[in-house]
Design goal:
Elements: H1 5-12, E1 16-25, E2 31-42, E3 48-54, H2 60-76, E4 83-88, H3 97-111, E5 120-124, H4 130-144, H5 168-185, E6 193-197, H6 201-212, E7 216-222, E8 225-228, H7 235-245, E9 255-257, H8 259-263, E10 269-272, E11 291-293, H9 302-310, E12 314-316, H10 318-321, H11 324-338, H12 344-369, H13 373-392
Parallel strand pairs: 3-4, 3-5, 6-7, 6-10, 10-11, 11-12
Antiparallel strand pairs: 1-2, 2-4, 7-8, 8-9
Helix pairs in contact: 2-13, 3-4, 5-6, 5-11, 5-12, 11-12, 12-13
The structure holds nicotinamide-adenine-dinucleotide.
The site of nicotinamide-adenine-dinucleotide (NAD) has 24 residues, from helix 6 and strand 7.
Length: 396
């Protein structure tokens, strides 16, 4: 894209990295100290915005990388936000509800100086959900002395959340794949064989919506393994089973497979929707799908990306494919600031408009520059951020 080295240097590192220690009183009376981060990459286009992750694998580098990715994603779908990300090193499976609440509230108090409805707006990510957002909102509101709906998104609907937020990322994945198939192949999703890695908030809703449109979901998986059925898996039954047991193991609707089998199974479309770096150089040569839709953030390693491209596999990149979540988060923030709440039809319609527009822009750029979709998406996104940085100039 002919990026000026000055802007390359400016955008290569985050604007701010905050590391916090969160002492938490555990149920047994002991005190445990958790490490947390909030990284603010860039805010040239608007307040910082990005998810908060509770996961044992969280580290400073991961949060820094995800914050930068968020800047590009927000710019690509043209939201008036910069990019940020947060994380706390913890294993939520070992925390009681009370411990999780105390950890969330302490983390919020520690990052309080840099978050706020016009400053930096966290949202759910791996290991966090609407309840965690409700605790952050309440802690922040108590500390500033007024109700502040806009400080987080992904809140429960009963507390100023937006209808349609929970399914939004999965719906965005569906919209982008549908638009791609209709625009570039003049085809439809009907009968397409799809395998999805990860059956959480993103993977489940993507599976459900694609199934509704006539696609055949042949494979699904979670952290413990997966299920394959070439006739198609009953997604509603699998969803119920997963919600009850938190894993798909022994689900009777297909044959048990490993996560590696899932990534390399016979299918038309592969959707990694679990976590980063699951599609690596060992797996990539064996991928049979013709299209990879990155529902997770950073699921493909750079080496795997090159292998997949050499194999002629089309990749719909994460900053485009999974931008539906932050888009509806933006709708939630707008509704909270306005105190005027939309219905589901409006949320879904506006989401589709944003996703279609973003896909069309990336598709046109890929044609014009004769490049892959990831390069096209980055070119557009980085270009928009650079324009904003340039227009603002340098302070002082
Ligand atoms: P989640 O915690 O609800 O679900 C994650 C799923 O992946 C679970 O089924 C889990 O068992 C499975 N999983 C974990 N490790 C795995 C592994 N090594 N192999 C196979 N499966 C594994 O999380 P989510 O909200 O669905 O997020 C999934 C991905 O999508 C993450 O990369 C996240 O950053 C990204 N994302 C989420 C949103 C959102 O709105 N939730 C938005 C944009 C991007």
């Amino acid at each position: 894209m002919g990026l000026d080295p000055l802007y390359r240097a400016l955008l290569s590192s985050p604007k701010r990295v905050l590391t916090v220690s969160c002492p938490v009183r555990m149920d047994d009376g002991t005190i445990q100290v958790f490490t947390g981060y909030r990284v603010q990459h860039n805010n040239a286009r608007g307040p910082f915005k990005g998810g908060l992750r509770f996961d044992p694998a969280v580290d400073r580098d991961e949060v820094m990388a995800l914050a930068m990715l968020q800047t590009w994603k927000n710019a690509l779908v043209d939201l008036p936000y910069g990019g940020a990300k947060g994380g706390v090193v913890c294993d939520i499976k070992t925390l009681s509800l009370g411990e999780k609440e105390r950890l969330t509230r302490r983390y919020t108090a520690e990052v309080m100086p840099i978050i706020g409805p016009m400053d930096d707006i966290p949202a759910p990510d791996l290991g966090t959900d609407g309840q965690v957002m409700a605790w952050i909102m309440d802690t922040y509101s108590m500390m500033v002395g007024r109700q502040s709906l806009g400080v987080v998104t992904g809140k429960p609907v009963a507390l100023g959340g937006s209808v349609g937020r929970e399914e939004a990322t999965g719906r965005g994945v569906m919209c982008v794949l549908k638009r791609f198939v209709e625009t570039t192949q003049h085809g439809s999703l009907e009968g397409m064989k799809i395998a999805i890695q990860g059956f959480g908030q993103v993977g489940y809703h993507a599976a459900r919506l694609l199934d509704e449109l006539g696609a055949v979901i042949v494979g699904i998986s979670d952290a413990f393994g997966g299920i394959y059925n070439e006739e198609g898996i009953d997604i509603e039954a699998a969803g119920l089973y997963y919600r009850e047991r938190r894993q798909l193991t022994d689900f009777p609707g297909g044959d048990a497979i490993t996560n590696e089998d899932l990534l390399t199974c016979e299918c038309d479309v592969l959707i990694p929707a679990a976590r980063e770096n699951t599609l690596d150089a060992n797996i990539a040569p064996h991928v049979q799908a013709k299209i990879v839709v990155e529902a997770a953030n950073g699921p493909t390693t750079p080496e795997a990306d090159e292998i997949l491209r050499d194999l002629g596999i089309t990749i719909l990149p994460d900053i485009l494919a999974n931008a539906g979540g932050v888009t509806v988060s933006y709708f939630e923030w707008v509704q909270g600031l306005d105190n005027y709440f939309w219905d589901l039809t409006r949320v879904r319609g506006e989401l589709q408009r944003v996703m279609d527009r973003a896909f069309d822009a990336v598709n046109a750029k890929a044609d014009e520059a004769d490049c892959d979709y990831r390069t096209a998406a980055y070119t557009i996104a980085i270009g928009r951020v650079v324009d904003a940085v340039r227009l603002k100039g340098l302070f002082p």
